Amino acid sequence: MFVKKFAATFALLFALFVSCTQRSLASTITVVPSEAQTQIQASINDSHSGDTIYFQAGTYNLNNLTLQPGRSYIGSTQGQSIIHGTGGYPVMAFSGNGLTVQHLILDGGGIHFWQAVSGVNVEYNTFRNISYGPNGQTEWPNWPSTVALFIDTSASNSDFSYNTFQNLNSQILSTSSDENLGVSGIFGYGFSNTTINNNTFNTVNEGIKIFFNNTNGANVHINNNTFTQVHRMAIEMQNSQVTSLEVAYNNISKPLSPWMLTFGISAAIGGGSGLAVHNNFVDDQLPAVCSGCWVGIGIEAWGNNTKVLNNTVRGYWATGVAVGLSSNLLVEDNAICGPDMAINNMYISNENPYSHTGEVFQSNTTSTATNCQE
């Protein structure tokens, strides 16, 4: 009797083990363009953590598709998986921990990350043709829909790399005014332990815009990105919740309709610390397009223990390197050249009336040429 009971118990435990093991194995769930959004959403909702949702090549029409955490959402590498949004909404939305999005083309909308997210990897995607609104004067009511990657609270332990951002908000790219629009490739309110590397931005209003006010900006790297035909700022960062931030080896050139608020890199982190801006190439070979104005700043740097090293800033910028509220700041070994900077004696300037204590400017080279060494 004991043997029979033991055998029955063992068989039951083995069956449960096999069942649990089978359930724990990751699955690939394929969705196809002919499916309605409700069908695709149901497939995502029925999937399990660790699963991959594979978007077969073709064109999908989706708005606000809700992504579940712990999954991978992968497009075809043998064709194009185009996720087309109809405008006024993000194409996808996500909140939680653990997400991978790769090899998708998001056309007409981006991804909205709501609340704090972590473990997010958005890589090898294209974001294109995202509009400010129905026309250049009317904004979509849901303004996060105008951003390719919108992080409304914070992102930690994440990677946003090897993506392409093109033709974002083309309706406003020729204006010579700052309409304070939240239209960017990447727009977020806080990053930590996160990389934004090797992305390409072409024909956009702003490339990267980050407010470090919802999380401590520690161990953030913005490196090796390429920016061409940016209307306002390639990289803009504000607020003081920063303790370690690197902006390096970025290539910024050919600003689109350059004007007085066209900047290369702006890192106005105020009371923050540990900013390193080094080995960037910031170029503008076109004078300002608006009457009576000038092209803005090549590199703007604020903060404590900030280092601006080995950058090249050249062309028609009004200022090569502008320094705001700071202490113990080092500006060294930068190559700065341009006719307007020379005329205004503004190769390097302090933005008064801010405090500047313990600053060192040394071994920088300047000239009146529009071109200098890279």
End-to-end separation in angstroms reads 85 Å
Q: What is the C-alpha radius of gyration, as a whole number of Å?
A: 24 Å
* Residue share in helix: 10-25%
What overall form do the CA principal axes indicate?
globular
* Uncertain stretches: 1-6, 15-23
User: How does the helix and strand content classify structurally?
Assistant: mainly beta
Instruction: Give the count of structural domains.
Output: 2
Number of strands: 37
Overall pLDDT confidence: 90
- Portion of residues in beta strands equals over 45%
Number of helices: 3
Which sheet architecture does the biggest sheet show? Answer: 18 strands, parallel
Question: Brief description of this entry?
Answer:
With 374 residues, the chain is mainly beta. Helix content is 10%, strand content 46%.
Protein model, in words:
By secondary structure, the chain is mainly beta. The protein has 3 helices and 37 strands. It has 2 domains: 1-204 and 215-225, no CATH class; 258-374, no CATH class. Helices cover 10% and strands 46% of the residues. The chain has an 18-stranded parallel beta sheet that branches. Helix 2 links the parallel strand 1 and strand 2.
